[in-house]
Amino acid sequence: MAYSDITFQDKNPVKRWLQQQRLVSALGAIKQLNDTPSVICDFGAGNGELCKLLSAHYPNTHIICYEPTIGLLNEAKDNLKGASNISFVQDVGSLKNESVDLVFSLEVFEHLPLKETNSALQTIHELLKSNGQLIIGVPVEIGIPALYKGAFRMSRRYGAFDANVKNVFMSLIGKPPVDRPTREITPSFNYHFEHVGFDHRRLIETLKDYFIKLSITSSPFPHIGAWLMPEVYFTVEKS
Q1: Which of 70, 113, 120, 187 has the greatest count of CB atoms below 10 A from its CB?
Q2: Where are the domains of the chain?
Q3: What is the pTM (predicted TM-score) of this model?
């Protein structure tokens, strides 16, 4: 199944709208930039939907579409045919340090175990220029959002790790399951395929080890806050 089939082209219209809205919210999370960024990297680009939006919004900026899994990278290449200001990268080690003004990483960190989380943040820190910005978008999987997301998942796959009563309840009360299933998404790269068990509050503390000036907003309606909204965005800066 293609990535777009469970995201931007999901059969549920609300889910399709939320997927599109999170891209708009990501652009809205950018803090004041003195100049148009010369290089932007989408770190874990999936099928390239954000890169498509960035390419249109910043036509004179070089957009790096970094996706480590070959299947998704091929989907991105197909999705972004004709975009002249986008380059495709599967090996992040091929990018130069301090070469990127702005990094986006959406729907990535909720899937990463602790080791991979720290490795990714260190890599992004090295890629960014001084005072460069990082915008991370992750789902809210605790509290009320865990309840309505859990109900939706149970309607599709009742009893699965992310769709059983116990795990949904524990997430609702702010104590999501710690022992999350882990598999390789690509050789030597461990990955949590299910969102349940992710706690964005822990990511906040990890971000503080690498970046400064943390600001937080939620999506799709930022004024309501993460207590009810399904997505949260962190904008940080390299010192």
Answers
A1: 120
A2: 3-141+198-237, 142-197
A3: 0.93
